[in-house]
Amino acid sequence: MASVFGDELRRFIVYIRGRKAWQDLPWSSGNTLSLVTVNTYVRAIKSFWSWLKNEGCIAENPLAGVAAPRFPKRLPRVYTEQELTKILSYVLIHPRERAIVEMLLDSGIRLSELTSLKVNDIDVAAGRIKGIGKLSSSILVSILKLNLLMAYASIV
Question: What is the residue range of 44's domain?
Fold first, then answer.
């Protein structure tokens, strides 16, 4: 273990980035491994060496300074004007869906936050929704959106 250095991991990264997925198997597509897969392999190797250091098996982690390869973030899919028109025409006649779509679009609220929302979290007088986000803060919401939520809540 004393002869392992960061350069070995860097060489491994170069090697694995050029390796074909399922290379030695008959169903191989010929495509190279994705950057996500390469990143996963590198993180697993680095985690193992960190564990060795934490357990006292090695004095220093020789791979600590090697960065895992980054992969590009995917851009969200953009809806066409026709798709948006179709969605909006549907939600106009369905109060629940309208409240969901408009809250997601206009407030920046996360889906998980919206699904965990309770009627008591809505403060119409202050124009706020309480207990939103990782820090349980509140967000300002337009009166129109609050009225949509309350209208939906009243029919449920």
Answer: 1-74
